[in-house]
Specification:
Two copies of one chain form a homodimer. The C terminus of chain A is likely disordered. With 146 residues, chain A is mainly beta. In chain A, the strands form two sheets. In chain A, strands 2-3-8-7-4-9 form a six-stranded antiparallel barrel. In chain A, strands 5-6 form a two-stranded antiparallel ribbon. Chain A contains one helix and nine strands. The two termini of chain A are 32 Å apart. Helices cover 3% and strands 34% of the residues of chain A.
């Protein structure tokens, strides 16, 4: 089983121009957007393509948020952009949907990042006071700058 | 750009036995778990491997939750297990971490599903009254039964 591997094909690309961010869906996949305008938010999955090399994919422990003061931590306990499978996940507010473009409020990704999936956003039912997490320096969103 | 593709390798597997669910991480990746026990919840990414065929990956529109009464909807506006890239995402409560096993409260996945990534869970900052979504029949979690 560990020998299996799976193939991911980009369905689109993240574009950032000036202050604007949008997702451009490739023509073959545009039909998959039907009804997405009924949602206020989406989960965008993209690929940390700038790190798609053997060294980054072999990295298993990092100092979170790229801060050496933070304890060495397993990548699966972080959102590090260097990890075995380079999947990034971000919740985004939809501003508008125009043909094959989803205008979004913002995304912490590079212009040109390959989009590999989009899912409609449903809020979690987890009360915040039941969420436990360590005290790292730096906001978790900063990790992707690592 | 649309011609590129990326390779995903499972880092572990979801196991369900009687009433118990756990994630078994493969030995090569166990170091990536360091510190995960400091979190109450994780986001588990797995592969809808039972649908890894050309037909399922070409499907772009579905009736959400497998209910014909729901309007035909683009897969990117759903959590359908049939979609171009078969990525599943689920937030899970950690019950315990023992060596290469993460015991979780529950997961809506089949026994044997390949785990492709794990990320620590940080709550969203999105007020529930700012989340808009359509009124489908059936809880969104039911979609994966489609």
């Amino acid at each position: 089983m560990p020998g299996n591997s799976y193939t991911i094909k980009p369905i689109g690309v993240i574009r950032k121009q000036d202050d604007h961010a949008f997702i451009e869906i490739y023509p073959d996949y545009t039909d998959g957007l039907l009804g997405i305008d009924q949602f206020s938010h989406i989960n965008v999955f993209y690929w940390f393509s700038e790190n798609d090399d053997a060294e980054s994919r072999a990295l298993l422990q990092v100092h979170p948020c790229g801060n050496e003061a933070n304890p060495l931590t397993g990548v699966f306990a972080t959102h590090s952009p260097r990890r075995p499978n380079l999947i990034a996940s971000s919740t985004c507010k939809i501003l508008a949907v125009e043909d094959n473009r989803i205008m979004i409020e913002d995304i912490d990704a590079f212009d040109g990042s390959p989009v590999i999936d989009i899912k409609s956003y449903f809020p979690d039912d987890i009360p915040h006071d039941q969420v436990r997490k360590p005290k790292w320096e730096g906001h978790p969103d900063d990790e992707e700058e690592e």
